[in-house]
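User: I'm writing a tutorial on reading structure tokens. Could you give me a worked example: one chain, its sequence, then its tokens, then a sentence or two explaining what the tokens reveal?
Assistant: Sure. Here is the example chain.
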Amino acid sequence: MMPVPRFLCLLLAAVALTACNRQGPQVPKPVDDNTSVPQRHDDGVESVVVNPNAAKAGAEVDGNGDITTPLREFKSGQTVYISVPTKFGRKQGERLEVFWFNQGKSQKEDTKNIQGPFTVFEFAPTDTGAYNVEVDANGRPVALVQFEVK
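And here are its predicted structure tokens:
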């Protein structure tokens, strides 16, 4: 058995070595609030914010391609026009793509190059229900238009 003073000395030495090996309090890291960087989710999907005026839906377009009266409800078989204005930072010759979805199912895809103040896409859906039309410029989403076919 070990004498008590020797045991106490070894115990004090172990406590002293442990205390000397401390790194100090954890300093919090600064928060980077850089909102210009797109938010990514765990699944790798990037959040996108689109301008609500970046595209409109309607049943008629004027000579420039602008929607004469924006609509949110259409009849089955009625032609739906999606008009995308060139303003909002897009330039002549850039490629626009539209993807028409009815209740999550793809209905039609179309691609056009910007050639004027408005680029117009059209589709005459026959399936009823809620539709979402995504407009992409050069592969990035720029507009989302929602309407219903009754």
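What the tokens reveal: The two ends are 93 Å apart (CA to CA). The helical segments are 4-20.
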